[in-house]
């Protein structure tokens, strides 16, 4: 499951895209990859399996915050991103939940069919582009496996005594992971199985908030399939800037488009000038030239390859940067974004 996070343009002095207390996101991953062992595996719901990952020697794992995800090397040559859905205070275990997707690219099928207790996996340090910002109140909206990054948020907000609620939809109650665990939060959590209740009433819920004025100061966090995200984005179109925070499973648009033109790419630190061809990504051009750039998803969803831009206008094609960050043009995701002009200069 590839992940990408974005937020509507922030209103000054409102919170930035992510990071606790409005801090800047940390896309770096924080260090070298880790070799972890699956301590336990259990079924959470129909077609959803949970894996508890731990250091084989019992060494405490790196710290993380609600909304973070890790890259998991499912097998050689196949890496997928999964949200951490356990307890951030538990440094002994990282927990991920994986939906079996028969029509996917093979990652979830491999984990479901080949990985069990005792299996070792290569895992990155956590990155967080979907962290909670400070707000008077929170509305969390989840669709299906999109509940995973929101589970630590629920625990965090509940522990703080914050004003929050969760609207969680799924195709059927039996397919909704963590349904039993969420029941303890009472009326703050609304479970909405589609087979018995229909589609999530996004327009009604968000419309009621806007009509009562409660949308002022409400931070909305949404993760789920594209249809749900589109509905939430449409319903929040007139909300205050910076209110909506989303995380996607897949890129919202193709990275390669008809009419892409070649452009020069200047590497400021070395002074080298490369040519990026039509249909070639900046990342591919850099790798061909031997320039080391850390990357993961390669489709503009995880934020790993974020690079500082020193000159030129960027054609942003990721789903990580906010509109305000895109307009500022200070960074780009080199795996998908290109140049609007004939030349681009990067801090490489």
From TrEMBL:
Keywords: 2Fe-2S, Flavoprotein, Iron, Iron-sulfur, Metal-binding, Oxidoreductase. Its cofactor is FAD. InterPro entries: 2Fe-2S_ferredoxin-like_sf (IPR036010), 2Fe-2S_ferredoxin-type (IPR001041), 2Fe2S_fd_BS (IPR006058), Beta-grasp_dom_sf (IPR012675), FAD-bd_FR_type (IPR017927), FNR_nucleotide-bd (IPR039261), MRET (IPR050415), Riboflavin_synthase-like_b-brl (IPR017938). The keyword Iron applies. Residues 31-133 form the FAD-binding FR-type domain. CDD domains: fer2, PDR_like. PROSITE patterns: 2FE2S_FER_1 (PS00197), 2FE2S_FER_2 (PS51085), FAD_FR (PS51384). It comes from the Bacteria. Residues 263-348 form the 2Fe-2S ferredoxin-type domain. SUPFAM superfamilies: 2Fe-2S ferredoxin-like, Ferredoxin reductase-like, C-terminal NADP-linked domain, Riboflavin synthase domain-like. One of its GO terms (molecular function) is 2 iron, 2 sulfur cluster binding. Residues 1-33 are annotated as: Disordered. This is Ferredoxin-NADP reductase.
């Amino acid at each position: 499951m590839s992940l990408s996070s974005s937020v509507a343009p922030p209103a000054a002095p409102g919170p930035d895209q992510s990071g606790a207390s409005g801090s800047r996101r940390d896309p770096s991953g924080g260090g070298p990859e880790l070799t972890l062992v699956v301590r336990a595996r259990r079924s959470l719901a129909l077609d959803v399996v949970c894996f508890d990952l731990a250091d084989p020697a019992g060494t405490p794992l790196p710290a993380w915050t609600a909304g973070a995800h890790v890259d998991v090397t499912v097998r050689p040559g196949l890496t997928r991103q999964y949200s951490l859905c356990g307890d951030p205070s538990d440094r002994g275990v990282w927990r991920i939940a994986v939906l079996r997707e028969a029509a996917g690219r093979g990652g979830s099928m491999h984990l479901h069919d080949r990985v069990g207790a005792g299996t070792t996996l290569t895992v990155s340090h956590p990155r967080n582009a979907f962290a909670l910002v400070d707000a008077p109140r929170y509305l969390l909206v989840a669709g299906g496996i999109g509940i995973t990054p929101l589970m630590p948020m629920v625990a965090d907000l509940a522990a703080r005594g914050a004003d929050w609620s969760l609207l969680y939809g799924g195709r059927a109650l039996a397919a909704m992971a963590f349904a039993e665990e969420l029941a303890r939060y009472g009326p703050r959590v609304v479970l909405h199985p589609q087979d018995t209740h229909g589609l999530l009433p996004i327009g009604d819920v968000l419309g009621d908030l806007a009509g009562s004025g409660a949308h002022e100061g409400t931070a909305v966090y949404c993760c789920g399939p594209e249809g749900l995200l589109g509905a939430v984005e449409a319903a929040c179109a007139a909300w205050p800037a910076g209110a909506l925070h989303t995380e996607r499973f897949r890129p919202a648009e193709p990275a390669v488009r008809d009419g892409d033109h070649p452009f020069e790419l200047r590497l400021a630190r070395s002074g080298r000038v490369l040519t990026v061809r039509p249909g070639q990504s900046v990342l591919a051009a850099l790798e061909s030239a031997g320039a080391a750039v850390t990357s993961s998803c390669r489709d503009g969803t995880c934020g790993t390859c974020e690079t500082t831009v020193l000159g030129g206008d960027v054609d942003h094609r990721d789903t990580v940067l906010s509109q305000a960050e895109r307009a500022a043009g200070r960074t780009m995701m080199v795996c998908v974004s290109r140049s609007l002009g004939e030349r681009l200069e990067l801090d490489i």
